[in-house]
C-alpha cells in the first residue's frame, strides 16, 4: 500500500531552483536512503516531505499516516524536562499520563538517558539532546520516519548503538523511512533502494555511483578512477591544470605534475593553501 506520493516537486529559494521536479513514492514499511553532496537539496526535500516547507510546483499526497522527522541538530522544548520532551508525542495522542511516563522511562533506558529524566535540555550535551530527539521521534509510533543524518553528531559507540536500535525498531514495527546519510555502512545496511540527490535532481544510484560518492573512485568520460585514500599535496609542487571535472557538485581538477603524471585534486575551499591529491587510475595509494 502506497503511503506517500510526491510527484515533480519543485522548490525555489528566491530565484534559485533547489529541487527540480523530484519524485518519490513510498509503500508501507519501505526504506530508502538518499545520498548527495553538500548543498544538493537533501534537507530541503526531507522538509518538504515532512510538511515543514511549502513547495512551488508538483503534487504531494499522503495517506493518513503519522510522520516523525529527526533533524541533523536536536530541536527540543527548552522549558520541558527530558522526560516531558520525550513523551510529548504521546500527550498529543492523548495517552494517559501514567502510561506515557512508563513508556517514556523505557525509552530513556534504551537511549542511556535514564538519569537525565528530570534535567532540562540545556544541561545535556549535544549528543545527549540528539538521543532525546531520536527517541521522541520513535515513541509516537510513526508510520514514516524522515531522518536527516541523525547519528552524525553522536560519538562512534553511541552512534552505532543508536543506529542499531533505530534500525531494529524500524524493522520490527514496519516503519517506512527516508534516510539521508553520508555514512557508507548506514546506506548499504539500511535499505535496498539508494537514491542520489545531484544538484536538486533525484535519481536511482548505481553501485559504481555509490562507490564514487563515498570517495572510492571518480567516474569521468566512462573511465573509473580509484581515489580512495587522499594524500595531502605539498603545495609547493608545481602542477599544470588540465581541466575541471564536476561530480556531484564537487569540483575536481585534473593536473599534470612535473614528471608528467596526471593527478586529480580537490582544492579545499576552506583552506585555500591546501590541495588533496588523489592517485590516478590503477594506482594504489600507499
Ligand atoms: N531557507 C533557505 N533560504 C535560502 N536558501 C536555502 C534555504 N535553505 C536551504 N537553502 C539552499 O538550498 C540549497 C540546498 O540546501 P540543503 O540544506 O537542502 O542541502 P543538503 O543537500 O541537505 O546539504 P547538507 O548535506 O550540507 O546538509 C543550498 O544551496 C542552500 O544554501
UniProtKB/TrEMBL annotation:
<dbReference type="InterPro" id="IPR003439">
    <property type="entry name" value="ABC_transporter-like_ATP-bd"/>
</dbReference>
<dbReference type="InterPro" id="IPR003593">
    <property type="entry name" value="AAA+_ATPase"/>
</dbReference>
<dbReference type="InterPro" id="IPR027417">
    <property type="entry name" value="P-loop_NTPase"/>
</dbReference>
<dbReference type="Pfam" id="PF00005">
    <property type="entry name" value="ABC_tran"/>
</dbReference>
<dbReference type="InterPro" id="IPR017871">
    <property type="entry name" value="ABC_transporter-like_CS"/>
</dbReference>
<dbReference type="GO" id="GO:0016887">
    <property type="term" value="F:ATP hydrolysis activity"/>
</dbReference>
<protein>
    <submittedName>
        <fullName>ABC transporter ATP-binding protein</fullName>
    </submittedName>
</protein>
<keyword id="KW-0547">Nucleotide-binding</keyword>
<keyword id="KW-0813">Transport</keyword>
<feature type="domain" description="ABC transporter">
    <location>
        <begin position="4"/>
        <end position="224"/>
    </location>
</feature>
<dbReference type="InterPro" id="IPR050093">
    <property type="entry name" value="ABC_SmlMolc_Importer"/>
</dbReference>
<dbReference type="GO" id="GO:0005524">
    <property type="term" value="F:ATP binding"/>
</dbReference>
<keyword id="KW-0067">ATP-binding</keyword>
Amino acid at each position: 500500500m502506497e503511503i506517500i506520493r510526491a510527484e515533480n516537486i519543485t522548490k525555489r529559494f528566491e530565484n534559485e531552483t533547489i529541487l527540480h521536479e523530484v519524485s518519490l513514492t513510498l509503500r508501507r514499511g519501505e526504506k530508502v536512503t538518499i545520498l548527495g553532496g553538500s548543498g544538493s537539496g537533501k534537507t530541503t526535500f526531507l522538509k518538504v516531505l515532512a510538511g515543514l516547507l511549502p513547495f512551488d510546483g508538483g503534487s504531494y499526497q499522503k495517506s493518513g499516516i503519522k510522520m516523525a522527522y529527526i533533524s541533523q541538530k536536536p530541536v527540543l522544548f527548552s522549558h520541558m524536562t527530558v522526560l516531558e520532551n520525550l513523551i510529548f508525542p504521546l500527550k498529543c495522542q492523548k495517552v494517559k499520563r501514567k502510561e506515557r511516563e512508563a513508556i517514556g522511562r523505557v525509552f530513556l533506558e534504551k537511549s542511556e538517558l535514564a538519569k537525565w529524566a528530570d534535567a532540562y535540555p540545556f544541561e545535556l550535551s549535544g549528543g545527549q539532546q540528539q538521543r532525546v530527539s531520536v527517541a521522541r521521534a520513535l515513541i509516537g509510533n510513526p508510520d514514516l520516519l524522515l531522518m536527516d543524518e541523525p547519528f552524525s553528531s553522536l560519538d562512534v559507540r553511541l552512534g552505532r548503538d543508536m543506529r542499531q536500535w533505530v534500525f531494529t525498531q524500524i524493522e520490527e514495527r514496519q516503519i517506512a523511512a527516508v534516510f539521508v546519510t553520508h555514512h557508507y555502512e548506514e546506506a548499504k545496511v539500511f535499505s535496498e533502494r539508494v537514491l542520489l540527490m545531484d544538484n536538486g535532481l533525484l535519481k536511482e544510484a548505481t553501485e559504481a555511483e555509490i562507490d564514487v560518492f563515498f570517495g572510492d573512485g571518480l567516474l569521468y568520460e566512462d573511465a573509473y578512477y580509484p581515489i580512495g585514500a587522499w594524500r595531502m599535496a605539498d603545495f609547493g609542487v608545481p602542477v599544470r591544470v588540465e581541466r575541471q571535472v564536476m561530480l556531484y557538485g564537487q569540483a575536481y581538477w585534473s593536473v599534470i605534475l612535473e614528471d608528467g603524471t596526471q593527478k586529480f585534486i580537490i582544492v579545499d575551499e576552506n583552506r585555500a593553501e591546501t590541495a588533496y591529491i588523489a592517485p590516478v587510475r590503477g594506482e594504489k595509494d600507499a
